[in-house]
Amino acid sequence: MDSKMNRVCYCGVRSKLTMSWTYENPCMKFWGCGNYRNGVRGCKFFSWYDPAVTERSKGGIVGLLKFFLQWSKIERMKEFLEFCFLVLCFWWVLFWEKTFFSI
């Protein structure tokens, strides 16, 4: 087996390939202890899968991550406003029907 595809941590458990989402190491894959996040502290096994990136590349990736996070917030706000608009329309129709039919 390829050593890049099959790693075993210090616990003897198959290690897990994960992606880093920190600004210091954006979108870089790494091997970590297979027991991490399973209620067990794990053995602190850690090994980078990807080679190091240049500072220029890191800055570009971080900029894109920030852009997509901001875009995601705007999309969620649009969905929330659409929901509020639908609720408002629903209540307006109910109010309008009450006033229209009560005349």
Features:
103 residues; mainly alpha; 2 domains; 3-stranded antiparallel β-sheet
Describe this structure in words.
- The relative contact order is 0.10.
- Strands 1-2-3 form a three-stranded antiparallel sheet, with no helix packed on it.
- It has 103 residues and is mainly alpha-helical.
- The protein is elongated and about 75 Å long.
- It contains one helix and three strands, in the order βββα.
- The N and C termini lie far apart (82 Å).
- It has two domains: 1-52, no CATH class; 56-103.
Kindly state the mean pLDDT as a whole number?
A: 76
Low-confidence region ranges: none
Helix fraction by DSSP (H/I, runs of at least 4): 40-55%
The total of beta strands comes to: 3
Indicate the radius of gyration in whole angstroms: 25 Å
How many separate helices? 1
The assigned structural class equals mainly alpha
Instruction: Report strand %.
Output: 5-15%
Question: Any idea what the shape is?
Answer: elongated
- What oligomerization state is this entry in? single chain
Query: Roughly how many Å apart are the termini?
Result: 82 Å
Largest sheet, in brief, is:
3 strands, antiparallel
Number of domains: 2
The arrangement of helices and strands along the chain is EEEH
Spatial order of the strands forming the largest sheet: 1-2-3
